[in-house]
Amino acid sequence: MSVIQRDRASLWHPYAPASGSLPLWEVEDADGVTLRLRDETGRRHEVLDAMSSWWAVIHGYRNPVLDAAAKRQLDTFSHVMFGGLTHEPAVELAERLVAVAPSAADRPRLERVFLADSGSVSVEVALKLAVQFQTASGFPRRQRFLSIRGGYHGDTFAAMGVCDPVDGMHSAFPGLLAANVFAARPPAVGAPPGEIAEWQAHVEDLAAEHANELAAIIVEPVLQGAGGMFIYAAECLRILRDIADRHGILLILDEIATGFGRTGELFAAQHAGVVADIMCVGKALTGGYLTLAAMLCTGDVAARVSSGGAGALLHGPTFMGNPLACSVANASLGILDDGAWRSDVARIGSGLAAGLEAANAFDAVKEVRTIGAVGVIELNTEVDVAAVTSAAVGHGVWLRPFRNLVYAMPAYISSAEEVRRMAEGMVAAVAEVHGP
């Protein structure tokens, strides 16, 4: 029995039925940006990974620096509990994150770090922290959140409650999710000033109406990921910062998908010059080697919660601060230290913009857009996920489309030629399945 047959007998894949009707490929080897696959017939395929494994493997597979960091840590200890114990990898990681986090002369610094298991968990921690902060500040009724349509923040329950309640993936749980407040999706990048002003008035009215019950505003800065790969005007982030300040509520920025260079800045909030009160990071934090995320907050937020009635932030994952993951994360951040990622991201962005342009001529295509090392083909209809994925493999590219989007987020080490081939494969797959 093949690996794929055994998989179908016992495993469940993300956003898929247990019956396993979608096609599967077995990964036999990975190196750089190349995956070597075997399909259900036993045929082998060598493909370029245009997804960097859901946006995390920014330095490529089998990166020698990350491999070495993992092996060094394995030679000492791979895990210890974080309650009452500490270790060098976690301390170094906290120091590194504080050093690179967005900052501004007129804003408190993000200086306290909570290490979590995954991006969704870091969002859960951020939301709990915001509620505890408001309670400790004398506002125990402030337990709701203001978010925007099109947002996505994870699949755990509190995180689901701040995702788009209509067009998101969580409408199956209406009675279980918190009733939060949602503003309209911000205007797209390049929108005229009048459209931005109209959106600003809408959000200001909404915030004023609910200010006495809001703990925080939570958004993905500039680029919404799983909610539609939508790029919005950076000015909107500055508007949200101002609204939060005027109403005494916190601003939480979810940089899980956008952090560590993906949009062309180290953190997407830097496109707007905005500093959060609370920031979540994950995905690329370990270069895709191990699951790890972090929540950063200002010293004031940390002090207020620590001196409140609970006396602590009420969260503590079993694998919090896992030293193996922290060691690899430190190595990943070390690779980013010299800033070479900026030219890498620019190269990828230019290649995707040039290579995807041909799709604009297709009747099935609504829009092609790029930001940083992100390229998106938006269709007029739902994408045929199985067919487009299979077609892309046939053209030597690994893709994972969703909704009406065929997109790429390649590893930063992707060469100009590899990016050209990725874009070519995307365009060819769309043309083959949905028509030119």
From TrEMBL:
The record marks Y15 as: Participates in the substrate recognition with KAPA and in a stacking interaction with the adenine ring of SAM. It is found in: Cytoplasm. Keywords: Aminotransferase, Biotin biosynthesis, Cytoplasm, Pyridoxal phosphate, S-adenosyl-L-methionine, Transferase. Its EC number is 2.6.1.62. It catalyses: (8S)-8-amino-7-oxononanoate + S-adenosyl-L-methionine = S-adenosyl-4-methylsulfanyl-2-oxobutanoate + (7R,8S)-7,8-diammoniononanoate. Substrate binds at W54, Y152, K283, G316, R400. The modification N6-(pyridoxal phosphate)lysine is found at K283. Pathway: Cofactor biosynthesis; biotin biosynthesis; 7,8-diaminononanoate from 8-amino-7-oxononanoate (SAM route): step 1/1. The keyword rRNA processing does not apply. PROSITE patterns: AA_TRANSFER_CLASS_3. It is an enzyme of class 2 (transferase). GO terms for molecular function: adenosylmethionine-8-amino-7-oxononanoate transaminase activity. Its main location: cytoplasm. Its cofactor is pyridoxal 5'-phosphate. Pyridoxal 5'-phosphate binds at G119, S120, D254, P317, T318. Belongs to the class-III pyridoxal-phosphate-dependent aminotransferase family. BioA subfamily. Homodimer. This is Adenosylmethionine-8-amino-7-oxononanoate aminotransferase.
